[in-house]
Here is the input.
Amino acid sequence: MIQEIAVGLLTSGVAVEGSSRLIVDIAMYFGLFVIVAMALNFQYGNAGIPNMGCAVQVIIGGFTVSAITVRLILTLAGNAGVDVLPWRSDYDWVYNSPRNVDIVNSWLSGEPLFGISMLLFTLAVSLILGAIIGWLISLPAIRLRATYLMIVLITMADASQIFGRNVVWISGGTLGIFVPDIFKWYPGDRTIVMAIITLLIGLVSFFIFRTMLNSPYGRLMRAIRENEVTVGSVGKNVVGIRRNILMFASGITAISGSMLAFYFSYVVEANYQRALWTYWPWLMLILGGPGNNAGTFLGCALVIAMRRIIIVQKWFLQKVFFFPVAYFEQILLGVLLVAVIIFRPNGLIPEKLLYVPGVNYSKLVKERVEVDWRAAPRTRGSSSGIKGIASLLSGGKKEEEEE
Amino acid sequence: MLVPAIWIAALTYASELTLLSMGFTLTYLTAKVPNFAHGTYAGIGIYVSYTFSKILGFSPYLGFPLSFIIGGLISILIYLLVIGVLQRLGGGAIVLTISTLAIQIFLAGATNIYAFWLRAKYNTYAQLFLLKDADFKVGGFPGIFIVSVGLTSACVLVLHYMLTRTRIGIAMRATAEDSELASVLGININQIQIFSWFLTGGMACLAGSMIPMWFMSTPTTGAAMITPIMAGSLLGGFENVYGAVIGGIVVGVSEIMLTTWGSALLGSWVGEYRPLVPMLFLVAVLLIEPRGLQGAWERMVASDTGQSILKSLGLLKEGPVT
Here is the structure.
């Protein structure tokens, strides 16, 4: 039956409505946020970099679409003989944006190859730009204490929004820029294609992250999280590894912003608020369990389902409340974060030991390794020998009192 | 008028920011947590002023003591319900910071809801307001200029006296230095923490209740203050209350004056980038000297050329430097 529904959805020539619309929406948002949350898990859960600037990287993805892809499409369409309205000055860029999109869309409906190549181009560019932003972020902050890093990243998220609001040629300032529909050639509802592509990107990045984590590099990452001094003393370049991780994860995060821009067919800085793209992914990460991709998936699914249900049931909630539902969500977010941190520190699915071929942990480690990420930046009980190595690999925190 | 209006604005803002930066630094010293909710306390203070002025019909100045107490109580509640619990569970710096962010989101939501409640109940527009009309004038100066500068100076002096002369202040410093050693000496750490959270929350709320007397205020004004607060605190060295005083004044004055001069020189578009000034301070301090003015001072005292300069200025006493 599910297959029939899926086939029906994919082949129907009309826009999806009602509950199927909600399913597509949830799938799309799940795909977008799972990319961000998994990258965050890669950075914080496994390497111990508290990236509070996911919003910066996501907004870079959005700006890539508006400032580069849209310009490229308009230029190429103009070269192909389409009568696009003038768009080169700031005024025309914003004022002619909706009409230009209409004109270009009718041309794009006959150009499937062009649309797909534009999508691939955008993904590649946002990956590179995201990595560059990750490198820029790492410059002042990566040698600093975790607290300073968080402060800098949070302010950077605000700064990028200020630039997006005031520099018109990036994303049209407060009015925003419309994005041509690169899936115009598709006969059915394009949101379904978008959702499937986003989920696929999420799946691919999941496998990449998993492979990296189960490789020697992943064990190095966890070792840095546990005790960077030890890792530095055996000749590993801690700062360099951290920078690489930040760059890679930033690139992946930026893709999410690009997909959001294509999904909305519209880019405006207000869509990339710090609260939405930093605090909600953090809640997903902490709820699901840091250091664990399965937990991230679960946390993401739960949070997205909750938020979407709140938004869909808005008409009912609005009757009860005298204030906009957005503030109720804020209260909920704050309470949930604190409650999860206090009552369920390991998340819904606790962190597991890393897989190392040929090593049987249960023989090595006799005691049960307790994982409590709440004590993360402290130097943990560093014992010598196999115990110490095992705790390094697993992220285990052994209490001093136990010994 | 002797002093141009823009300087009055700059000094008023700087004194409010100093009060906030001082409290932020004090929290960081005693609880070892950068309190991201510190700016949001100011947002609560803004609405205490609004309630006193527009709803109850008094002068907003009458609300200042109440605002101090409300801010202190909220701060104590946060300590008892969240921060204290997490510290007892062994929470590290990152998890404490995340929890303060969660508190910030919660308090910002609550402030917004209160503003909407005022609209629903009293039919007033509490989303964007200015209480300049309720102010008085003394000799050409607006009252808030004198009150804010005076109150901040008084707070600095009282805090200095308390930290150096009174038992509780010395106990606070001992807790900040090494809480375990302090508790061995018979200091009740928990009470000291509660007292310090009350003090910082109260000071922040007091500073917040002064904001709408001169500046346009919205429910998010307080939350947006956190960047200048942290810039001021970081410029002062992050672990030094006196440094935070200097940092707050420098960041506050330069935020307003740089934007004003920039607008005059380059055009009005500079005004939009006002929030970038404290961010520039943050990044510059972190790149040049992460320990701020305190670190710069210590470096100067440690170097030979710095010592000779200080001696020629008469700032350094003769004798061994520790």
